[in-house]
Design the sequence.
């Protein structure tokens, strides 16, 4: 482009202001396009196209062992939505996991952030160490916790038997197995809440706290009536983001229970994965994955609006 | 609060809170401590970690000598490094666009990354299996690299936008007035200003790819084993070999430990979003 501008300058005593502006605009537009193009291309080829392929597969009979893939309409969706396993086990597990993990994380994160939000010797060390779980691979975290709760050799059962109780078969009872997965997830995610709550606490205005102190409020009253309402916007965003993440949990469940015993601890991602790669019904797996994607979009929106209304009402 | 005896009550309260904090920290660090202790116990005593005090590095030597584990470490490190280089290039550019060039295209792009970030991974990684197979990329570095970059596009563009928002727009205006092109202003003026953010994102990207499991599980076969998948298989296939398992897992945690101890200051800004 600079070459042509040069020729024009030689030819006709310089371009008009309008032309110069237009060429600048074109250059700007091309620059913007170049900035986005690689990201957009990767997103298109490796996310949008696969999603569309998934939609296509979900509308066909598509087993990994089949040669032909005839169109069957919404039959796969109908089978997922009438599957007792999906409706009676997978969805309750997924929502239960989401609620337990996010609630546990928020409560624990708030408590730790409040403890850390005051000067004490060694504060830097504690603040540094508490972030560690956030950096650890979910698979490694799962291995650690699974080892602690190992039926035969885990330290948990050593303690249980030392206290005079019979050893517990942790992963044989579905609700215990899921509970251990929830524990692992809380271990992994709590630092996230601690970080964002601590960051938010540092930006809070001082006046409401001083006013509360003048009014003679005790620590709990200050927390309940001043700190918590001020933190609500941050908590709202954190809860929505983490709920969406918790809904699609895979790594920890797969490593710890694999959905067992039987299929009692399957969550949505495990169910879809097993349909596709264990039972080799890619069509049903794709349909299940799309149903889950639709549910989580609705949940995300509802959660956002619902929490926003609740926080506005109570303010 | 009552004034009389306040100092004493305060002292007790502080001691109590300190104990609670120590307890919480202990609970949080216990799993790491326990796994590390397990990895240091001799093979024969690994099932009775709490009995005996004999410690050894033999498990680590044995784990590091196993060909599949070696391969997994190398593959994961190479993939994480490549993914970091590519992801940074792509998302730094798209984040800069989101931060500076408002307009219709900006809105469309912003909505797109917002929307696609909420799609569950399982929904697009299953068809990705078919896609990489039909492109002949299944179980290769390239077939792992590009999807891993795609995983980061949405979130990192968003984070990068935040970093660029913190750089004064006057800097570019001044550069333009001095006759700088768009590229010149971006590469020579703005990028150096955003370096802390880029470093933070680079570290996170490396760690996230190193830790990633679902894409690795579905998009790899036996030719390109990745660390997380190898470890998860350990649990089920070789469930009894806890001495190797723990040594491998502890080794896999080293990057996380290094980042926590030495690079946390840079990284938290990218984690809080």
Sequence:
């Amino acid at each position: 482009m600079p070459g042509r501008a040069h020729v024009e300058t030689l030819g006709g005593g310089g371009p008009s202001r309008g032309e110069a502006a237009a060429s600048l605009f074109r250059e700007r537009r091309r620059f913007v396009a170049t900035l986005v193009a690689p990201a957009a291309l990767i997103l298109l080829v490796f996310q949008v196209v696969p999603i569309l392929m998934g939609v296509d597969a979900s509308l066909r009979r598509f087993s990994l062992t089949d040669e032909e893939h005839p169109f069957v309409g919404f039959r796969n969706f109908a089978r997922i939505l009438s599957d007792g396993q999906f409706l009676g086990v997978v969805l309750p597990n997924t929502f239960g996991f989401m609620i337990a993990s996010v609630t546990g994380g928020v409560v624990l994160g708030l408590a730790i952030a409040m403890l850390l939000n005051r000067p004490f010797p060694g504060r830097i060390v504690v603040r540094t160490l508490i972030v560690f779980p956030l950096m650890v691979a979910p698979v490694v975290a799962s291995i650690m916790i699974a080892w602690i709760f190992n039926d035969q050799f885990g330290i948990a059962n050593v303690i249980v038997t030392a206290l005079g109780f019979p050893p517990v078969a942790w992963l044989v009872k579905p609700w215990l197995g899921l509970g251990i997965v929830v524990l692992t997830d809380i271990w992994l995610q709590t630092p996230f809440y601690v970080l964002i709550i601590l960051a938010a606490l540092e930006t809070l205005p001082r006046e409401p706290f001083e006013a509360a102190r003048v009014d003679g409020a005790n620590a709990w009253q200050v927390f309940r009536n001043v700190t918590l309402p001020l933190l609500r916007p941050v908590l709202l965003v954190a809860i929505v983001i983490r709920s969406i993440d918790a809904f699609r949990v895979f790594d920890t469940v797969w490593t710890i229970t694999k959905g067992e015993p039987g299929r009692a601890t399957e969550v949505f991602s495990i169910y879809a994965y097993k349909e596709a790669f264990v039972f080799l019904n890619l069509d049903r797996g794709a349909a299940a994955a799309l149903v889950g994607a639709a549910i989580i979009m609705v949940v995300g929106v509802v959660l956002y609006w619902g929490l926003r209304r609740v926080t506005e009402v109570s303010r | 609060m009552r004034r009389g005896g306040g100092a004493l009550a305060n002292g007790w309260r502080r001691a109590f809170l300190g104990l609670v904090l120590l307890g919480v920290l202990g609970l949080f660090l216990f799993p790491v401590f326990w796994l590390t202790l397990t990895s240091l116990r001799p093979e024969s005593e690994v099932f009775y970690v709490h009995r005996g005090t004999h410690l050894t590095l033999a498990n680590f030597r044995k784990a590091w000598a196993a060909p599949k584990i070696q391969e997994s470490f190398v593959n994961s490190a190479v993939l994480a490094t490549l993914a970091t280089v590519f992801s940074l290039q792509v998302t730094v550019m798209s984040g800069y666009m989101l931060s500076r060039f408002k307009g219709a295209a900006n809105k469309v792009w912003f909505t797109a990354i917002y929307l696609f970030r909420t799609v569950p991974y399982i929904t697009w990684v299953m068809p990705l299996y078919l896609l990489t197979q039909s492109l002949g990329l299944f179980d290769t570095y390239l077939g792992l690299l590009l999807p891993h970059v795609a995983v980061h596009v949405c979130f990192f563009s968003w984070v990068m936008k935040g970093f660029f928002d913190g750089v004064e727009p006057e800097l570019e205006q001044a550069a333009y007035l001095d006759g700088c092109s768009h590229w010149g202003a971006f590469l020579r003026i703005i990028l150096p200003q955003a370096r802390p953010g880029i470093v933070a994102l680079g570290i996170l990207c490396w760690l996230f790819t190193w830790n990633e499991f679902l894409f690795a599980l579905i998009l790899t076969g036996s030719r390109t084993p990745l660390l997380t998948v190898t470890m998860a298989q350990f649990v089920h296939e070789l469930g009894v070999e806890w001495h190797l398992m723990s040594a491998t897992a502890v080794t896999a945690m080293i990057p996380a430990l290094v980042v926590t101890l030495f690079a946390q200051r840079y990284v938290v800004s990218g984690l809080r979003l």
Notes: Chain B has two domains: 6-40, 59-271. Chain B touches chain A through 85 residues (CB under 8 Å).
